[in-house]
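Example (one chain per record):
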Amino acid sequence: MDSAGQDINLNSPNKGLLSDSMTDVPVDTAAAAQTPAVEGLTEAEEEELRAELAKVEEEIVTLRQVLAAKERHCAELKRKLGLSALEGLKQNLSRSWHDVQVSNAYVKTSEKLGEWNEKVTQSDLYKKTQETLSQAGQKTSAALSTVGSAISRKLGDMRNSATFKSFEDRVGNIKSKVVGGRENGTENLPSPTGSGSKPLPDPTPF
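Predicted structure:
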């Protein structure tokens, strides 16, 4: 713990700075003094351990103060860079997901799932099911192709039949008569001024 405490500069000017919401962790030395000594420890060893415990607790408080100062500094840098809280949330989620992916539990679970998948795909039941589905698909495709060919052949036979050709000729004749009648209809219509080319008499004046 001494080496970990030395990695962070405990003599930093941030040491001793606390945020308004943070308080030091109280060290209950009285309770520690009342705790009965572990059997097998001499009085000198007990005193040495208590002194080391007090030192570690003090370092914890100092580290919390340094962490609070770093967090404030980080927030100030983000504010100056224009990074929103949403961006920070995305980064935290991405970092958390990366931590999950590299965790031992995630890696073991992925390996286990891979083993199960391999066992399932290599099993006789899975292979038979795949073969059955493949054969059913091929039979269905063949049946649909046969039905389509039969329908196309039937339509071709109908178009080549005498009955269909006779019907088609009749429809063509009717269409020709209708179109021809429309083209010649304006010439045969009576004149709105009367029959023939004789003009109407002038109206008698009052």
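Caption: Helices lie at 2-7, 29-34, 43-81, 85-101, 104-122, 124-160, 162-188.
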